[in-house]
Amino acid sequence: MDIKPYKGAIYDIDLNQDWYCPYCLTKLMLSHTKDSLGCTTHYEVCDYSHQNEEARIRRGIELLEGYKFPITKARVDDIKVKELAAARNRLLNQLNLIDDELKSYVTKKSENYER
């Protein structure tokens, strides 16, 4: 596995604002040192963290390819709406398949009774 550095835009954010994990969409918590954000989800599920440039330099942290910056509540809401709409569409498709199967079964049963 080849580890590559992050090549996207790098910017500092106001760590005192409300930010959310771009992976599990959980609200991030400001560290006791007030220089980083961390995901509050159990570390075996998500271990996301974010530091602004000064803290990254001080800790020797480099951003790697695929890194995602924290997201806002509005972005979380957009993602959740899209996920719910997709889930609704999947359920409607499944319901249509079940309806078709039920109609087919009822039709076959009624044909058997007519004989």
Give the helices and strands, then pairings.
Blueprint: E1 28-30, E2 36-39, E3 49-51, H1 53-59, H2 73-114
Antiparallel strand pairs: 1-2, 2-3
List descriptors.
three-stranded antiparallel sheet; 9% strand; mainly alpha; 115 residues
Describe the structure.
By secondary structure, this protein is mainly alpha-helical. Helix content is 43%, strand content 9%. The protein is built from two helices and three strands; from the N terminus they run βββαα. The protein has a three-stranded antiparallel sheet. The radius of gyration is 24 Å and the shape is elongated. It starts with 27 loop residues before the first strand and ends with a helix.
Major sheet: order of its strands?
1-2-3
Task: Describe the main β-sheet briefly.
Answer: 3 strands, antiparallel
Query: Total number of helical segments?
Result: 2
Strand/helix succession:
EEEHH
Low-pLDDT windows of residues: none
* Share of residues in helices: 40-55%
Could you say which structural class the secondary elements and strand pairing correspond to? mainly alpha
